[in-house]
What we know:
alpha+beta, Rossmann fold, 2 domains, 5-stranded antiparallel sheet, globular, binds adenosine-5'-triphosphate
Amino acid sequence: MKPNPSAAGVAVTVEHLERRHGDQYALQDFSITLEPGGVLALLGPSGCGKTTLLKLLAGLDRPSGGRILFGGRTMAGDGVMEPPQKRELGMVFQDYALWPHMSVLANVAFPLQMRGLSAPEVRRRAQESLERVGLGAMAGRSPAQLSGGQQQRVALARAIVARPRLLLFDEPLSNLDRDLRDSLCLDITRLLREVGATAVYVTHDHEEACTVADEVAVMAQGRLLQLATPATLWSAPASSTVAQFLKLGALLPARRVAAGVHLADGALLAHELLALVPGMAEDGADSDDAAHRPRQGQVLIPGHAVTPGALDGAALHATVTAQHYRSGGFATELRLPGGVSLHTLLRERLQADSTVGLHIAPRQLRWFDAAPARG
Ligand SMILES: Nc1ncnc2c1ncn2[C@@H]1O[C@H](COP(=O)(O)OP(=O)(O)OP(=O)(O)O)[C@@H](O)[C@H]1O
C-alpha cells in the first residue's frame, strides 16, 4: 500500500490472526499490512468476519491466535492485550452512537476531555473539528436537531478530534439514502487524505469500498481471498469466488484446449486464450507441453464484454429476460446457457424473451482453473 509521507497514521500489521467461537472460526489465518496513512476497505458477505477484525483491531475483542502490531508494538497476541484507550483510535459506527443529552460540541469534545486537556483547548479543537466536517454553525444544537447525515458528520468530527493514529469505520453510511451516502463517502475520502490517519473501513458496498480505499480486502468465511487496489480487483479478480462476489459477470463452466475456450456444449467461445490469461506463462503452466493439455475451469464473461447482434456467427446465444431504462442506457438481464444470468448496460432496446447472438470481446474474458481435486 502506498505510504502517505505526511501521515499521522500508524503502520498496522496483522499476523496469522485468529478468532474462534467454540470450534467455529470467525477469522482464520488472517494476515495483512497497512502502511501509515493507508486506507483499507474490508468487503465481504455477511458473516465473513469484517466486524470481528475491526473489534480485534479496536481492542474490543481478544484474538484466539496470531497478533496485531501498531508501529511495531504488539497490541494483541503474545500474551499482550492493550485496552482500546491505549490504542489511539477513532471509531465511526453505523448508528452514529452520539450522546443525545449532550450538545454537538460536547459530543465532539468528549475524547479531548478524557485526555485532560484544558477547557479552552478542548473547545478550540472541538470547534475546529466540526468546521472540518462542515458543521461549525451547529455546535450548540443537540443531535436530535440534526439529520442522519449531519449526525454522522458529528461522529466523524468526534473520531478525528484527538488526532488518532488509526480510524475504524463500521459501515458508517449504511443508514443513509443513496445520494447522501455518495456525497458523504467523498467527504470521508477527502478527510482521510487530509488527516493522514491509517484507516480500516468495513462496508457491504463495492462502490463505497473502491471510492474510499487504496486497497480492498475481499473476505469470505473468515479468510482473506484477495488484497488489491480497486482497479486490480475489478480487472484481475484472483478467483471465481471473488469475481462472483463482486458481480463482475457471468461464470460459465468451460474447457481450455490449446488456444481456445470451449463451453460445456463444445461451442468455441474465444480463440485468444494466451492473450486473455495474463500470468499463465509466468507460472510455467503454459510451457509448450502444458499449453496443449486440456484444462477444466470457468470463464468469466463481464457484461461489458458482450455486444448483442445476429445469431449467425455469434459465440453465444442468450435470451433477453428483462430490460429497463437506466441512466442513458438499458439495464439488461440476459439468460446464458445453463440458466446463468448476465447483467449488462446496452444502448439499444431489445425485445423481451427474444433470442440474441452475443459477440464477445475475447480480451475482456478471464479464465479460472478448476480447483485441483483433493485426495
Ligand atoms: N460472540 C459470538 N459468538 C459466536 N459466533 C460469533 C460471535 N460473534 C461473531 N460470531 C460469528 O463469527 C462470524 C463472523 O461474524 P462478523 O460479525 O465478524 O461478520 P461480518 O462480516 O461483520 O458480518 P455482517 O456484514 O453481517 O456484519 C459469523 O459467522 C458470526 O456468526
